[in-house]
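pasting for ref
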Amino acid sequence: GAVLLETRKLISALCYFSIFFAGFIIPIVIYFITDDPEVKHHAKAAFVSHILPFASLLFLLIAVFTLPTFSGFIIALVLCGVLYAAVTIYNVIQGIRVLVSR
């Protein structure tokens, strides 16, 4: 009943908040050890959002070696920073949303 719902909410929120301390490790572990479809859904969403900043690092590396000017590199660096900030904000909002849901 109520304890299961609260546990589900805490574990789901932990998947999102883990961006601050464990990156994509916690969501992927929770995804594979839980049988709860709602927790799996949140773990998968958190995992995908945690991977985005790492993918942007690939973009930054490609930019370093292909953009002819330093300003191009700076633009790529700023875009990666904005993406990381947006992903962090998204995860905080989603974590809070899960915690306050009914």
